[in-house]
Specification:
mainly alpha, 5 helices, 87% helix, 0% strand
Length: 126
């Protein structure tokens, strides 16, 4: 049960961060496309890559801290449930070009960002 509390505490922080980041991005670029969710998923993937590689290469952390940071904060920060809803809304609006771009960009750029985070952490921490 202790690990669940660590994940939940981190999740609350991550979810609040996601909400605030999405608001900022949406205010900067507008409401016509789900840029907020896209940005959060890419940033979250980059941060996850950095965190996991830093833990693997340099830092020995407890399971509680890893759960708090990775599962909690970053798991709460990134959200593919919001991604799925945004995609469905674009499809429902028959904005198929935007939907296809959103799908591809979300998946490909998030994965590339994760690899960039891994490489960045390796370069800095080795």
């Amino acid at each position: 049960m202790n690990m669940v509390l660590w994940a939940a505490a981190g999740g609350a922080i991550g979810a609040a961060g996601r909400y605030l980041a999405s608001i900022v991005v949406t205010r900067m670029v507008g409401h016509g496309f789900p840029w907020g969710t896209l940005s959060v998923n890419i940033l979250g993937s980059l941060l996850m890559g950095i965190l996991i590689e830093a833990i693997a290469l340099r830092f020995s952390v407890s399971n509680e801290l890893r759960t708090f940071l990775a599962t909690g904060i970053l798991g709460g920060f990134t959200t593919f449930s919001a991604f799925s809803l945004d995609f469905a809304v674009l499809v429902e609006r028959k904005a198929m070009t935007h939907a296809a771009f959103y799908l591809g960009a979300s998946v490909v750029l998030s994965i590339l960002a994760l690899f960039a985070g891994l490489s960045l952490a390796r370069a800095v921490l080795q």
